[in-house]
Amino acid sequence: xxxxLIDQLRPGFLMARDLVDAKGRILLARGVALTQGYIxxxxxxxxxxxxxxxxxxxxxxxxxxxxxxxxxRAIETLRETFDSIEQELASLRAQSHEELLKxxxxxxxxxxxxQKALLEKVSxxxxxxxxxxxxxxxxxxLTSLKSRDGALYDHSLDVCAxxxxxxxxxxxxxxxxxxxxxxxxxHDIGMLFIPRDxxxxxxxxxHTILGYELLKATDESEILAPYVAYEHHEHQDGSGLPRxxxxxxxIQRPRGQTTPMLTLIGEIAxxxxxxxxxxxxxxxxxxxxxxxxxxxxxRLTGSFFNRDVVMAMRRVTPVYPKGTQVLVRGAPYDxxxxxxxxxxxxxxxxxxxxxxxxxxxxxxxxxxxxSREYPKLSLRTIGF
Length: 384
Ligand SMILES: [Fe+2]
Known about the structure:
CATH superfamily of the largest domain: Hypothetical protein af1432
Distance between the termini: 9 Å
Order of helices and strands: EEEEHEHHHHHHHHHHHHEEEEE
CATH topology of the largest domain: Hypothetical protein af1432
Number of helices: 13
Strand content: 5-15%
Bound molecules: fe (ii) ion
Radius of gyration: 22 Å
CATH class of the largest domain: Mainly Alpha
CATH architecture of the largest domain: Orthogonal Bundle
Oligomer: single chain
Number of domains: 3
Number of strands: 10
């Protein structure tokens, strides 16, 4: 499986994963052969890349964190929620941050948001996602592909799935996990109101505060955890936004703490948010392959991300996800390449690999090796 840019796609290439569009419909299913018409439609919808299955590669389907049916239903609900809130508050868009804050806290906005029972639906979706994600032992290690229109929904769902899995790795109580999941689904809702000419720092500062204020104002605030919206851009060392709060780098909260500290669910969401941004790419940075994304997170552990939370994440996140291509270094397979055929849940950086080509690039008879048996081998993801 390779990740190809839209310009590299040719008719006849095979889809390696299902593609669910911004309306929650399956746009192209796994195994479908691309036509020029499909490629043009994908470009129109703002997809920048696609997972393609190589014909000479073994049949290894990548895992998904969220099943297609649950993802479709969740996208539909999120779209409905975001659209309604955006419509109700459309007139606020042009106002200053202070005016927006005042409006969000006004009685009629609260009544509007609550009366629609919209957020109740979101909390039901959060429960469905928990049921779905928790049937798996590890994350897939790959995020969904984002179109221009659907990026906010897919990002929210992917962050939610990663957060649920981290929460399960630290045995977060179910009620708290549901708050985290609901908060993740709406963590970027403040993006609906920020002025278009905001710079990058302004956008981060404003969407976190506005999201927090909006969720805090709702009847569902218990379930939807406004702190997830508030703190998902904060850092352990206090260098984050909007409040610059510090963290303890632990899961256990220190006793007798008097100064305000980051909440655990905010810290989990911050890590899940960053991981999805690394894998999916942002306007500032192209996407990273999964192994490099994990290296980036390691680099920022302790300063940006809670050390204990990162450790929990590493227990559920494959470094070389199933279906991805790897280059092997070290004897006896130096410079061979292959495809990850199985992830080993006990050792997420030592998968099973089906070797396909030797160092000279010649095809070898497919041979599955367990990389745990070759401790000297090192692996690098390729094809991204
Ligand atoms: Fe955000």
